Amino acid sequence: LYNRKNKLYFYFKSCSCFLGSRTSGDLKYHLIQEKKTWFEARDTCRENYTDLVSITSQQELWNITNIKGRFTVWIGLYQNPWQWSNGDKSSFQYWNTNEPNNNADDVCVGMYLKNLSDKGDKHLSEVGKWSDFGYNNQQYFLCYKEKLTLVKEKKTWREAFIYCRTNHTDLVSITGPEIQKQVAEVVNASAKNRVWIGLHRERFSGYWFWMNEELLDYSNWGSGIQGDPLTDHCGFMDKGRNFTWGNTCCQALFSFVC
């Protein structure tokens, strides 16, 4: 998954629930005009794109607010202390006046979008500002999608993890069938057999989780794939077994997908 860059363009698509998207380098934003709660919005973004949008700088904020609309949209910021739904800390924040108000149920954050061509509107100063809301409020939402990249150099799982964190964003998390399909297409085009993905088993509890801290709600394990529960704690995708998943020793050397 690629880091954020600065080149951008904008276009509209016509669909009952989709307004348009904005691309910043290898990062594309998708505005979904279907009202959902914050958690429903997050799950929809993860199933079809990457996640709810994370806003890490003033420049990125203004890139997003050029999307035209007259409504508040969910972004990926939640809880207090505030963090992004992808697990990152929130070092950049852009609160509206008297926000956050820290009401007990206001644990999720929305951002005000508005058509910037409307001059003289009293709400113009609120464009891009954030407010906290109850998670059961229903609002439109903003997803982002990052470009997948296959690194052909073979590394251990930990080396692959460090490489992706340093040069891109993370080892890929496959949280739904749409992302599974996208990763399979990347692997099919360039890779040989097994590639590391961001799947890891916690040694003591035995639970599998993604490196974005999400547990496995969706899985695509290959039949007959067991692995040694004492040593095989890292997950891979196997091109030779119809892109199903397996687990093996983390010291094995594979290509990987960031």
From TrEMBL:
Domain of life from the UniProt record: Eukaryota
Name of the protein in its database record: C-type lectin domain-containing protein
Annotated Pfam families: Lectin_C (PF00059)
Keywords carried by this UniProt record: Disulfide bond
Annotated PANTHER family: C-TYPE LECTIN DOMAIN FAMILY 20 MEMBER A-RELATED (PTHR45784), C-TYPE LECTIN DOMAIN FAMILY 4 MEMBER K-LIKE-RELATED (PTHR45784:SF3)
Domain C-type lectin: 29-144, 143-258
Record keyword Cell inner membrane present: no
Keyword Disulfide bond part of the UniProt annotation: yes
Organism: Latimeria chalumnae
